[in-house]
Structures are given as structure tokens and as C-alpha cells.
Protein 1
Amino acid sequence: MTGARKLALKPRGDKRAPDAKLEPWPILIVDDDEQVHQMTRVILRDLDFQGRPFKCIEATSAVEAAAILDLQPEIPVVLLDVVMETPDAGLRLVRHIREELGNHQTRIILRTGQPGDAPERDVVLAYDINDYKSKAELTAQKMFTAVVGALRAWIDITTIERLNKQLSELNDSLEDKVSERTAALEESNRALARSKTRAETALLRETEAKAQLRQFLSMVSHEFRTPLAIIDSSAQMLRIRVEKSDPGGVARLDTIRGGVQRLLGLIDTCLADEQLDSGRIVLHEKSFAIAPMIEVALAHYRVAAPTHLYSTRTEPELAVWGDPGMVALVINNLVGNAVKYSPAGSEITVGSSQDGSDVAITVEDQGMGIPAEDLEHIFERFHRAPNSKGIPGSGIGLHMVRQIVEMHGGSVTVESRLRKGSRFTVRLRPSPGPGAEGICPVRDGLSGPTPDDTVVAPGAGGKISGSDGG
Ligand code: ADP
């Protein structure tokens, strides 16, 4: 409890000038000696730290100081005397601050006038204080240094605590977000699992339905073929017998035979389409010239359907990459349809040309055309336009055409005007080689739709084999 010393001190806490608008740093002076309060006030009055002046809050006893700290726990520094109302009042206050108030941020500088009562080493070890000064040696400069040091420590501690708090808040919100996201993910996983099960069930049903269709087709094919062959051969024999005696009977027998052929063709087409659909067809691709294939197809139709005029517009050198048997089937289906859906005497033109990086094959007729609203459905299985009513057909041919073309990585499109005609365009990949190597021996008598019939699948028994069409 020493008196005030003479001050010759004008230090600044930092380079900033004190700002009247900034809150002063509250410093709690706890001492029962009025002179100590006065001296501290004088020292701190003209000083500042970080542009903020100091404000002395004064308590003359430990009890008073405890009450102040209870109300203002954010006081950064306490300058604390030891001997006040009792010889260890200051030390008891330290315990109270740390243990009862739970205040570990406030920096406590012990300022003792009688070090003998509270030896520094014992006090520093036993109490959570931050500095120990003897009043006798505490010059103005040293006090300022001690206060600024304590303030810096308080700023660091409170900053760390604030950041820790923010971090844990952030952690909490992150955890909330993670659990929200996890719940959402789990829900979408469950939804995914449900749709997977639905899709698997649907797939299973579809596979079963396809297997049944295949079974049915093979049964129909097997059970119908023999009686149809018997009907056909009987009609043929009868025809020979009545040829001379009954010309009217001949025509009726021809109608019977035409019907039989149509039924056989339909069975073959259905089988071929099903084979394509179930992916049981393997392509045997190679390079081949397209113009000769078109010529062979047209030669067939010139004989089978002499009612029409046939012309070509082909670029002779063009070669495509594909399965010749399959491509021939496509051309024959399209030409067969052109014959079927255009009047006798009209012209059918088949062309081939380079179209960008593709080879385009076109089949044009001057027939009935396709209604605009049917164009987008025309390649769907069993779809028939209303204007084809009365003309025999199954609606399978174009579906098959599209499947074959797409298996080749190509495309098929149609343009059509009612009562003016239609043009189908098939785009295929060109031969990668410099010319047409391995020109395909196009099959004789390629079976396409006969003028009065639906598509007839190629080869013996109408089976698609993915061959070179030989
Ligand atoms: P189908 O001829 O056996 O009915 P397609 O699948 O070959 O079966 O043809 C589907 C439908 O497309 C036909 O029923 C017909 O309505 C229409 N169509 C196909 N080609 C032509 C064409 N060249 N001209 C007019 N309509 C056509």
C-alpha cells in the first residue's frame, strides 16, 4: 500500500490516436488504499491502447469487486491488492472469480504492498493469476506494460473463444446439414430401390410375355405350315385338273393359293420381327456396293409386279458397310410397300447417293401417301394408316425395317403427301474401305412383299439369318 509515484511517462498503446467514439477499456482497480486508486487513475488517464482509452472501475474491498465482476464479467483486467478487509481478501477474490464466477478470461494482476504475506512463488503456483507485481517496484511504465500485456492476452483469449464458439456452431449446423442430407439420400436410395424392384418386375413380366409370344409364334408357325402346305398343293393339283375344263375354277384356286402364300408370309414376317426384337440376330457386316443390290431387287419386282414402272437413280461407286442380306430385306420391304400402296402404271424410283458422311438409299412412289398424323407412328409395330384399309398388310414390315437399320447404326425417315406419293430414306454408314470390296452376291428372287401381299421374310422358311444374302 504505497503512495503515488511521480510520473514522467507519455507512452501510446499503439499508433492510433484515441477515438472518442470507441468504448474505453474497463480496468477494475481493487485496493483499500485511496492513494493507489488515485495514482492508477492518473497513470491510465492519458494512455490508450489500440486507440481506446482506459476507464478505471474502482472497488475498495474484495466483496465490492466480486459484486462488480458478477455484473460485468467482461472486464478484461483486474489490478488486485492482496491485503484488504482480511489479509488474504485478494487471494480469496481470485478463487471466487475463477471457481465460483467461472470467469477464466479476465486477466488478474496481483499488486501487493506486502510481498512477505503472499510470497510470489506460492501465489503464482496456488492461484490462477496472470501477473504478480510489488507495488514498490510498479512504476508507471511497468504498470502500463503489465496492463497492455494483460489486455493483449484477454483479447487473444476472447478471440479464440469467440472463434471456437463460431466453429462449434458451424460444426453443429454442418452436422445438421449432414444428417439432413443423409436422410434425403437414404430416402432417395429407398425410392431408387423401389423403382429398381418395379423395373425388375416389369422386366420379368416383359421377358415372360416375350417368351410366351415366341412360344406362340413357333407353335403357330409349326401348326399352320403343314395344313397350309397341304391346302396349297391340293389347290395346285385341282388347278391342273380343272385348267382346261373350268377356267372360272382356275381363278378361284389361284385366289386360294394367294391366300395361303399371304398367310405363310405373315408367319415368316412375325417370326423375323420377333427375332430382331429379341436381339437374337447377329449381323455379318462387310463392304458391298449398293447399286447392284438395288438392280437385283428391281429385277425381281419387274417380274413379280409388272404392273409398275421401275427406275433407278444410283451412284455406281457407292459402297456401304452392313449385312447385305439384311440391307436387301430393307430395300425389298420398301419397294414392296411402294408397289402395294401405289396404283398400277405409276413409277417407283430407287436411288442411292452420298448424303454427308452417310449413304442414303431412297424409295419413292406416286401412290396414296400417308396421312400427316400417321407419319410419326408409321414405324411402330402393327401401325397401319387408315387409308391402307382394304389393302392386305400386318403393320410389321416398317417396324422390322427400322430395327434392321438401327442395328446397323443408321436411320430411316419418311416424307409423304396424301395422294401424291411417299419417299422413304434409309441412311447407312459408308464402306470404310476405298471401294466396294466383297461385293455381295445378292440373293436371287429376294423375297419382298408381293404386290398383293405383306412383307415376306427372306430365305427358306422366311428365317432371318443375318447372312450375306446369298
Ligand atoms: P403393312 O404394309 O403390312 O401394313 P408396314 O409396316 O410395311 O406394314 O407399313 C405400315 C403402314 O405404313 C402401312 O399399313 C401403310 O399404312 C403405311 N405405308 C407403308 N408404306 C407406304 C407407302 N409406300 N405408301 C403409303 N403408305 C405406306
Protein 2
Amino acid sequence: MSQQRKTLPAEDGFSMPGEHQPHSEVWMSWPMRPDNWRMGAKYAQQAFVAVASAIARRTPVVMLVNHAQYANARMQLPAQIKVVEMSYNDCWMRDMGATYLLNQAQQRRGVSWQFNAWGGLVDGLYFPWDLDNAVAEKMLNLTEDDIYCAPFILEGGSIHSDGEGTLYTTEECLLHPSRNPGLSKRQIETHLQNYLGIDKVVWLPQGLYDDETNGHVDNIMHVVKPGEVVLTCCDDPSDPQYAISKKAYQVLSSQSDAKGRAIKIHQLPMPGPLYMSEQEAEGIEPSAGMKRQAGERLGASYANFLISNGQVIFPLLDERTDQQARDVLQQAFPEHQLIGVEAREIVLGGGNIHCITQQIPRSKSLAG
Ligand code: KQY
């Protein structure tokens, strides 16, 4: 049974591992919102099945499903994927799921952040978001890990840990007025140190251009292993992404990580730019928070992949750049098996493979 802890993870010796470390499970949740996913999420569901099936080759997958979609999800998903009924507002496990921590003895606990649908009443994408906000605690209850309830807003997609004391994030997101307007940058760093057990924060100025999450770090870069990252780069000086990626490159190449290492950067190509088609926009129900119009630029990036137990599940986005992205990733992950999954339907919903998955690190109590 899980208990709520009143202390801080860092003082208890817990910290956030890197994604490259072993996982016991990966959790996802089933798409269904007709104002975010076209055609009642029919095509997104197929993409989620493909992502879950790829992960499940090496890591057990748990899929959360709303009651109305249970039978449909069970029918579409391979038998080895565990389907668990749970309530939620949309399906971004990276952001509403718990962030798991380990201590030196490989015991596990987790953090439940406050979630406000990427901006609450300032510029959030939907209302209400209360069911999403309750998911992390329910998840920790189901995995029987003790819970730290963080008293501030944060989404899992806005942080990357290297598991050795370095946390990567963006100023654009964490300092955005729609997240924690009462906290200074210094106070946010202190919270990150307390709740994630990290020693140093590397602040990129911005995330991917026109990303509806206010610049999540997981859509522009990814940690390969301590001291090594991949970064989305752009070779067209007239594209707004060019200057953003250039600044990110400068920050990463001019800083050392928490252990004093220079940070090695692998440069990923940028797909597209890609835009929403007329046909795609027509299949989405209008809503107040989410702009979904034909011609809208999509927040598409190859950096939004998942590492899990020796596999890298990465998005296929544009046949002009997919092979180049695969080559860069294979060079960055020479020992990993790369699996490309068609991800345009996920990108149409505003995120990608990393955003729809949440890994649970392997602990000593869950051997194997
Ligand atoms: O980037 C992520 N971690 C999530 C994207 C959420 C988009 C909501 N429509």
C-alpha cells in the first residue's frame, strides 16, 4: 500500500533516474477526446496501439482507458498489454502521470505534480482538468509506491533528468505566467532540487517553435545518457526554429553538467515544417482552448521519442528526413534497437511519443 510522505524526496535520498536506466513498466492512456483527436480519435488510437506494441517487445505496457472506451481499447490492443479503467480528461501520461524516483538502494517512490492542462485559465488547452490532475496519485497507489505531493504546477514533459544530478528544462515553460507565477526562477530551482533530488538545472531559453505546451523540453531535446543529448536543429535561417535551436545549442555547449562534464550534442534534423491539412482539421470538433485549423504548423520533432530497456521508439514524421533522423539516433544509441512508428496522428493532437508515455523505473522490490 502506498503512503503519502510529508518530507521532501531529496532529504529522504530519492532522485529522478534517467530514462536510459531500466524500466519495469511503461504506462500510457487511451485517446478519445473528439476536440483534440480527429474522427473521434480513431486514427490516433491506431497510432497509440503501434507505440504500445513497439514498447511491449521489451517492456510491459499498462494502458489506462476511460470506461466508455474500455471494450474498444481491449479489442484493439495486443493481449499482453494490460488495460486498466481510469478516469482522465485527455491522454498525456508524460504530463499527468507520476514522476518516479529511486534511492541508492533502488527503492522507489513517486511525485504527484499539480497539473493545469498546460496553462489553467490563462492559456490552458481545456477545462476541466481535475481528472487528469488525480491520475498521478492513483497511479502511485496502483504501483504501491509512496507519494510526495508537490505544491506547484509541473508537467513531466517539461523536464529531462540524466539520472546523475542534471535536470534539463526550458525557461519558456517553467517561467511561464500560466504555471507558477508566484515563484521566482531561484524558487523553482529549489523546488526541482527538493522534489527530484538533482544538483544542477540546465535552462534552455525556449522549446520548439509554436508548441502548445509553452515549450516543453521533451519536444526539442532528449538526454541520451549522462553528458550526452540530442537536440532538434534547423538549417533554414528564415525559419523561426533556427534561432531557437541555435540558442539552445549555445547554452548546451557552453555549460557543463552536474558532474562537470562537457555536454556532447547530437544534432537531429527538423521534419517539415509540417502543417495540418484541410481534411485533418475537418475531423476535429471545435473547442475554446485548442486551435485546430487547416494550415496550422505542427509541433513536430524527432526528439520526442522514448528510450525503454534497450529500445528507442521514435516518431516517423516526414519521409524527406526520417532516414537522417534514424541515422543520428542510431549513432547516439549504438547499442539500442531503433523502432520507428508513424506518428503524425499523435502530432496532430499536440504531442508525440514521449508525451504519451511514462516509464516506471525498475526497483529492487520489483526484481526482473
Ligand atoms: O509535450 C507533451 N509532453 C504533451 C503535449 C500535450 C498536448 C496537448 N494537446
Protein 3
Amino acid sequence: MTSDKLQQARSFETQYAAFIPDAERPAFHVTGAIGWINDPNGFSCYKGEYHLFFQYHPYSTEWGPMHWGHVKTRDFIRWERLPAAIAPDTDADRDGCFSGSAAELPDGRQMLMYTGVYRVRRPDGRMEEFQQQCVAFGDGVDYEKYAGNPVLDGADLPAGGSVLDFRDPKLWLEEGTFYMVAGNRTEDGSGAIRLFESADGTHWRYAATLDASCNEYGRMWECPDFFPLDGKQVLMVSPQEMTAIGLEFHAGYGVVALLGSYDKAPYRFEREAVQAVDYGTDFYAPQTLETPDGRRIMIAWMQNWATTGCKPQGCRWFGQMTLPRELSIRDGRLVQNPVRELAQYHGRRVSYKDVLLTAGATSLHGVEGRMLDMTVTVRPVDGRESYQAFKLHLAADGNCETVIRYKPASSTVRIDRTHSGFPYDIVNVRDFPVRPAGGAVKLRVVLDRYSLELFVNDGEQAASMTLYTPQSAQAVSFEVIEGAARIDVEKYSLEFEEDAQ
Ligand code: FRU
């Protein structure tokens, strides 16, 4: 049965979302029908389609009592809107349906698992927020919350686990058993990832703690995911309160991949390597699914909690997802590239080979636009690093621009949105190390109206960034500082029919 609260959210989105023109949204990145979104939730296959839910507050562009919004797709690029899926409307989740996941059950139902939140005022007047895990079952549109919710609460945690920070269950089914990982604050104030198992999805038991921050990589670990990839096991977490470590981890909200091995019998995860997942300004709370053809696809909230106050005045939607990305492991590192389905939306191809760049900015005929997929390979002239820096200027119009810069001497890439429409004193620049092969660096840029995603050297590093540059800023140019370089450019415009969101 649809509760009043859910019905109210559904009516609100139906009534008002139509007032937001398509041209004022990203062309192929998911946004909410209206209002605020954060984390991706329930990213999963169901009956041959890919479903994505998300943290959703339709009534304003601020975070508020959390609902789950809902879209689905067949190709990760064109998304169909579905009505809001769940609302905070039961005792177990009366103050919010926080992040969680979904799975297709053998009996054909879709199961959602999420964090139910309720607040209680303490005798000293402060509010305390309790977090517990709940489930709901449905048909891909409508969901019935389980009457026995919560299915997991503080009593299920091992000693020292906080009942106030216990959230974001990521669910999967394996050989008839349900497994789930969730984030939990530990006694030292930092975070751990707990693994639970269940025979039926409603009766759960704590199995093991897979790994813990021990105050090394941030504090509380949110939104975990845990999956095998190319012979390794990946534990992905979103730590709060990171302190910066070199150019690998920036301060604040980060996303960390722990690569290792997993022994299922004793539930032991052995961490072997740690790396950042995205080196840009806007990337958090990623979630993955496995496609029927065996690909591991990741999507994330393309936003940073630290800058959620920085949005265009009067905007009707806020928060967008990244482009879904295919994950793999190469040379012991997590590699990510845009889903291959993006190529189905390639329009006109423009390509240049071996263009010699000397002092000053160069434009190339046919290379411009705000919805594009472009790869630029930069090589030194005669095999020597005969330049100080290479700069790619995007979304430019004389006043505005977004810049990607590569410096061969330090082997670093910088993304810079200082002039990309943000009138705020926020982080606009990030630098990160790359590994050029034979002196050449390959920069693949996917631009949508309000974002840039960069993939360096076939996905070895990714960097995501939101921008609010006016749409009329379409120019692209290439520049070499002090010296000369040669570039190859392959650029596709991205083209969508009008009914794409
Ligand atoms: C991460 C997060 C989750 C939580 C949700 C609430 O961005 O804080 O841990 O479930 O957002 O909206």
C-alpha cells in the first residue's frame, strides 16, 4: 500500500518536475525529477533492466527527510524516471530512509535493503539518531516494507560498534545465501566494515569485520561495496574526515579502494593495497553492480558534501550522478572507463593526428561543444619532454573556462574550475600524479552540460568535477607552455534524441 507520505512525494514530482526544462539539466547524467539527491542506492539488475535509486528530497534543493528516488535504464546512458520508491513513513524509518542497495530474488521480487533512521531527544536536550537496517519488497515500481523491520539493529553489532553510526547496507546473493556489508563506527571513533549473512533476507547474523580505518583513512566509513574483480577482492568505502596524504588522498570526504584477497570460509579480507578512486572535486558514495555479461559497473554521486551550499541561485534540481564506469584491475590498480554504451551516442567524429603545438593556444576546426567525448594524446616532440606544460581549455568563452593541465616534469595532471561559474571560495583545483607511457599522456574527457569527467591513460586515473559555466561557453583549445608538443585528437559530439533526460 502506498502511504500518504510516499503519495505526497509522488504527486509533488509529477506536478512540478515538468517545469524544469530538459535543456537545464545534464543530458545524460542522472538527476532527481526535482529537488535534492545524494548517494546512489540499489544500483542493480532487475528483470533485464538496470535500476538506480538514490537519496532524495524532492521538496527542496537541500538535504531533508530522506526518500528514495528511482530511475531505470537499459544502457546506462538514457534513463527512464519512475515514481519515488520509498518514503520515511514507518516507525523503523520515521526520520529517514538512508542509503542501501537492492537485489533480484529467485521468486521474482526485488528486495531493497536500507538504513532506517529515528531520532530521540536525550534528557540534556540533544537529539540522538539511531540507525538500523530495514528491508522492503516490490515489483520494480511499488514496494512493501517488511512488517518485521528493523531486520538488524544495535543488538546485532559486535562489542564496541556504535548504534548511532551503522548504515548503508550493500546486499548481494551468493549460492542461495544473502550477504551484506555495512559501515559502522568503532570504539576508537573511526570506522569499520561489518559483514552479515542471512538465509532468507530477513533474519541476519553478524559474520565478521572485514577491515577498519583505525583512524588512518578518515574516520567513519560510509557506503561500502565489496566485490571480486579480475582475481582480486575490492572493498570500496567512503570515509568522512580524511586527512590529506600527498596527492593521493585529499582532505575531507574521500573514496578509497582497498584491494586485496578474500577467503570466504573464515570471512577474511586481506588488504594489500590502498588507493583513491577519483582524484577530482566531486565524487562520493559509489556503488557497483555486475552486468549479465560480467562487467563490474560503478556509479557515484558527483558532488562533495563540503560544497553542497554552492549551487546556482534558484536551481530546481541539485545533485547528479557520475557516468557509469566499467571497472577493471591493471598492474595492481583499479582502472575505470566510461561504460562502452556511451559509444552508441557518438555523433560526428573529428580527428587530428600529429598536430604540432608551439607557443599560444590553438583551436581545431570542428572541436568544440559542451556534450562531447574527446581523447587527446600529448607527446613530446622528438621523444624529449620539450615543454613545460600542456593545457586543454574546455567550456570556454573568453570569460569562462575549465582547464586540464599536464606537467611532464612532475608527472601531474591538474583540473581547474576557477573560471567555471562558481562564485564561491571553494576548492577549484586538484592535482594528481599520473604515469605517462613513453612520455605520452592520454586524456579522455567526457563533458556534459554541468560536469567534466576525465580519464587519464586508459582509465588509470579518473577525476570528476561539476561546473556551472554558461552553456554558451563551447570553445575548446590546446596550449603548450614553453616549448612544443604534438597532439592527436579524436572528438565525438554526444547526441541524444529529445526524449532523453
Ligand atoms: C553518505 C551518507 C550515507 C547516508 C546518507 C544520508 O553520503 O551520509 O552514509 O546513508 O548519506 O543521506
Protein 4
Amino acid sequence: MAFTLPNLPYAADALEKAIDKMTMEIHHGRHHKAYVDNLNAALADQPALQAKSIETLLKEIQTVPEGIRQKVINNGGGHANHLLFWEIMSPQGGGAPSGKLGEAINSTFGNFAGFQGKIKEAALGRFGSGWAWLVSSGGKLEIISTANQDSPLMQGKTPLLGLDVWEHAYYLRYQNKRADYVDGWWNVVNWDAVASRFAQ
Ligand code: MN
């Protein structure tokens, strides 16, 4: 079965306090769609790989034939990364995490502001295109950054929160000011969604 592009879980203009409507429309309807289309094209002759979940496909990336592996890394990673990105944002987002996730963030990074600073460092330190992540790895929280559409799943890490720092994610409103985009983005982070990923 082919991979499909789900609808956004909110209207394209729902995140205006951080991300403008046109950016959301192009990002979802063109960029994410292209990752899905190109992933399906790469796997056209691979029914066994098409049958895997996108997460399993990336975790088991070494089993993908070498001739199409980089295409699956780029486009399968792009698909998985954006699925997570839409899910962990919400018009009702913002604030700080509570409960077990909040406690784990505080005990790992000192406090929430310290955590935000580390994410920002990862986001601004990524030269060119990529992502900043909060991941769970061996039962511990970690902040990492990946290039292009590389998924933390390929390193055996479970992504909990991901920030897209490709220019296509912010350029229309923020132009070259990636730091302002990162600062605004906290206002739409859906901590309930991040906490439910953490609970699994
Ligand atoms: Mn993107």
C-alpha cells in the first residue's frame, strides 16, 4: 500500500501566531506531498517495504536496497519528520510541559528555559537545512540536530519533538531570522502530544 499525505490536524491559518497560512499551505501541500510522492516512486517495485510503517522503514534503513536507500532516507525521513511536526503543534499550544515529561525535562536540562536554550542552540547551529530534536534514547532525553531529512529513528532514537529549520518552514514571514522563528514556535507547541509520545 502506498504512503499517503494526511490532512493537517487544524486549518492552515490556525498557527498564525507563529507560522503564517501560506507557509503552512506550501509546506504541507507541496513539500510534504513531494516527500510522500517521491517515497512511493522509490518503493514502486518494493511491496515488502511498502507494507512497513514509515517508522519501521526508517529504523530498518539498512535493509533497504542500496540503490534506493538515499531516496528513502530523504523522502521517507521527510514524510515521518513532517507527520511528527504537524502533530506536535496546535493552535492551543504553548506554555510548558507538566507531569512526567515536565519532570524529565527539568531533571535532564535543569529547567524549561535551559531546555529551550538547548533546542535553540541545536536549531541555530544546524548549518543549512535540517531539524532540531528532543529524542528519547536508551531511556534518556537528549537534544540532537540532524541534517536534511535524516530521521533520529535511523540512529535508534525516538523523536518526541522536532523543529523544522529548513528555510521553507519560515522564510516567508521570518526571512533569514531563524532565531525569531524558533522563539515564536514555542507558542504553538502541543505539549500534550509530546507527552503522549513520551509516555509510549
Ligand atoms: Mn519541512
